[in-house]
Structure formats: C-alpha cells, structure tokens
C-alpha cells in the first residue's frame, strides 16, 4: 500500500499590518536620525559662519593699549633670576660698596679674600638687584639682614626671607672673623654653600659663626645710621609670624641703590 505523501504546512507569514504612509518633508527628517544629524550639523556650521561674518563687518577690533610716554614709567615688581654671576670686577683688589639708602649713605670696604662672593655682590648691584629692598630683619644686639628681592615696599610678592637670585655660592674661608660691623653672606642648609644675595651686618662680634659664613667686608662709614635703627621684624616665613613682627616697611632701612667703586 502506497504511503500517502504528507503535505508540509508552511508557517503562516507574519501579518505586516497596515501599510505606512510616507511622512512629508521635513517631518520625515526628524524620524530619520542619520539624516537629521547631518542636516543639523550643516545648519549649525552655516549659522556660525554667518555670525562671524556679521561681527567682522559691523564691529571694530579692540584697540591696542596706548602707552603713556608723558609720565614716569612704573617698574613692574619682579624677582630677577640668574644662572650665576658674571665677572664684573677683579675682586682680589680693594673695592668699596656705596649703599644709598632712605636714611643716608653707608660704605662697606669689601674683602679681597672672598672673590666669588664679592664679585657676586658687585654683579647683583650692577643689575639693580638690591634697589628698593629693605633690611627685613634688624636686632641691634645681633644683626641686620637684607638682600631678599621680595622684601621691598614696591614688590607684589610676599617678603619670605628666602628670596634669592637663582643661585648660591661656595663657602670661602677668610682671614677676618665676625666683629662689630662685619658684613657676611649667611650659610644655607646645603653643606659648604652660602646664600647668593642675602647679607648680614653684625652689630656685635659672634665667634659662633666664624668659618661658617663668607665675610665680604666691613662697614666703614654710616654706622651711626645702623645704630639709629629700631629693631624690626617683617612677618615672613623665616620667623613664623609673632607678636613683634610687622607687615609694613614704614620704619625699615631701604636700599635705594648700590654702586661698587
């Protein structure tokens, strides 16, 4: 008996639903994401270009600032930095540093056995590094200290007591010791090195620092100016603000200029 061939039933096709009508332009762009973004980007670029052209055509550019050449120029406070001092004097020969200050003239006879430190002092003086700087610490029983370029009434920087010219110097052994009116370059934490610009004027002998600082000279005139100074302690990172420190330079000795003869 012949087998009956079974017909294979195919699965019913999914009902496609009612035929959708096409949306009119430009509504159809909103539902076509890719096309919408393309049109949007083109429109934005065109709008920005139009705005730019409009501004350029209707407004003038900002005028350049006018430099007033009728008055005295005001120097911008700054902290000069140098790689090191250039040779400007033969520091093995006698020289005198003349300090013009707001309280009078002070003269320092410079040492001849500390050529690196003395030449550095002369180099910075020639660069006007010390101009308008203060003795930011004065104790008339011990020392007066200056040479921080930030410790100035004209500076927009804080007087920290750490300001330097960007370099330091080797410690130099000298024949002289720390006596009254000795001028010395203080030591720093780095072994056998001293500060690049700061200096101390000793009001009294101090043998404790003999051999630890480089002595660069001795005050020969103007000691009465130094004796007339009041104790002064500018609030700085060096002293950690205390009840005795002040924030102004009203009573400070200000170095106006230094020349080396």
Description:
The chain has 261 residues and is an alpha+beta fold. The chain has a domain at 95-260: Beta Barrel (Cyclophilin). The protein has 4 helices and 12 strands, in the order ααββαββββββββαββ. It has helices spanning 27-31, 33-58, 115-126, 223-227; strands at residues 95-101, 104-110, 133-134, 137-138, 143-146, 169-170, 182-185, 193-194, 199-202, 214-221, 232-233, 254-260. Strands 3-12-1-2-10-7-9-5-4-11 form a 10-stranded antiparallel beta sheet. A two-stranded antiparallel ribbon has the order 6-8. The radius of gyration is 39 Å and the shape is globular.
Key words describing this protein structure:
single chain; 261 residues; alpha+beta; Cyclophilin; ten-stranded antiparallel beta sheet; globular; disordered N terminus
Question: What would a concise description of this structure say?
Answer:
The chain has 261 residues and is α+β, with helices and mostly antiparallel strands.
- What characterizes the major β-sheet? 10 strands, antiparallel
Estimated radius of gyration: 39 Å
- Shape by Cα distribution: globular
Strand order of the largest sheet: 3-12-1-2-10-7-9-5-4-11
**Multimerization status:** single chain
> From N to C, what is the helix and strand string?
HHEEHEEEEEEEEHEE
Distance between the termini: 139 Å
- Percent of residues in β-strands: 15-25%
- CATH topology of the domain at 95-260, by name, is Cyclophilin
Q: Which spans of ≥5 residues are poorly predicted at pLDDT below 50?
A: 1-31, 47-77
CATH class of the domain at 95-260: Mainly Beta
Structural class: alpha+beta
Count of helix runs: 4
What number is the mean pLDDT?
Answer: 78
Residues in helices, as a percent range: 10-25%
